[in-house]
Amino acid sequence: MLDRITPTVYPLEKRRASRRDQLVGQWQVVGATVVDGSGRDPVDVDVSIEDGQISQVGGSGAGGERLDAGGLTMTPGLIDAHVHLGLSSPIQPQFSFRISAAELAADIFATAGATLDAGFTTVRDTGGIDGGLVTTIAKGKVRGPRVLSCGPVQCQIGGHGYYGADWEPTELWDSHHIPGLCALSMMSGNADELRRNVREAFRRGASFLKLCVTGGVVGAHDRLADTQFTVEEIAVAVEEAAARGTYVTVHAHNSEGIRNAVEAGARCVEHGTDLDEATAGLMASRGVALVPTFAVVEQLLHDTAGAGLDESTRDRVLGVRERMAEALAVAKEAGVRIGLGSDLIGPAQQRRGEELRLRARLETPMEALVAATKTNAEILGLAGRVGVIAPGAQADLVLWNGNPVEDPELFADPANAVLVLQDGRIVKDLR
């Protein structure tokens, strides 16, 4: 099947060019079955690209070179709304600061490249990287997806996101950040400290904010049932985000913490494991989105050691998968907008498409794809720019060896993404 792609569309030196080198001119991808991200049925149409954008879907196009994609399926570039590129090393050694900055950087860069190879052209990093990494990828010095980042996660003292030793004073935690590379979390003891910390996060380049408002699975000093930060404290972060034209998302597993965040004005909820009907209704009425994260649950259930964690973490995650699936159904029934995020941690982040495979078991493959494209673009504030195959959108496209809407198992194996384009540039080519 792969030899059906014309191998001479671009000379070798052009395909190997830096990501900064725009493929100029007009050209077409012809013969593919197109699944455009809207939820509409697949169609066999040609897609024309000009200067990095989709110029036409269907019709004869404007001419130029042609890429023969007969027998392949085209989707928009996938979007992962919950990643941790900065947690690409084994977790416990990283949290105990036993890995050098050089090795941390190497692991992060490898994960960024693997993310692109899996068909994900845009990600939202929800904690762990500093602004320098986002800039490095954007400049094309490292292969990777388009990255939107919250910078350091905002946490309350002793809450989820703090992994220092019990004896270590909280004020020493920030000294473990690696400026320009890693910044896991910042601690606040009150609203004034939180205001200072979120302003610092924006200074470092954050494009949105993330707060931990409940305990978590990979936790050291908390429980899933804990609530963290008051409504008034969360509202301070919302106020600061709104002043910059952006939003707050929250790590939240229990309904009480979710309600606090929604009442304070947060626009998105990560995980939502124990979401109840009343809280889901409140989210829907306020336009608050939900991003469930199933892949990390599977990861921690079946390969805890591979993530660099001990078996106590596995005990914490027992039952989460079933409750999160119930929460997904509750949110759908309430009319909540539901995105998609993998939340993978540690070095095993190559199969990011597992999240679509798992979601396709709970919904339809098409619904999973729409969540990972059009809906995620809306949540990230990129509606119409990415996540769809439509005129005017960026030419972020994936050509799949097979039809993942018919066989969602294909999403999970990066080898099935045989050609990946980002902004009209070929960034992966298995021909």
Automatic annotation (TrEMBL):
Gene3D superfamilies attached here? Metal-dependent hydrolases, Urease, subunit C, domain 1
Q: Which domain of life is it from?
A: Bacteria
InterPro entries named in the record: Amidohydro-rel, Metal-dep_hydrolase_composite, Metal_Hydrolase, Metallo-dep_Hydrolase, OTAase-like
Entries under SUPFAM superfamilies matching the protein: Composite domain of metallo-dependent hydrolases, Metallo-dependent hydrolases
Every Amidohydrolase-related domain range: 73-427
Identification of the protein by name: Amidohydrolase family protein
Q: Which organism is this entry from? A: Amycolatopsis nalaikhensis
**Upper taxonomic lineage:** Bacteria, Bacillati, Actinomycetota, Actinomycetes, Pseudonocardiales
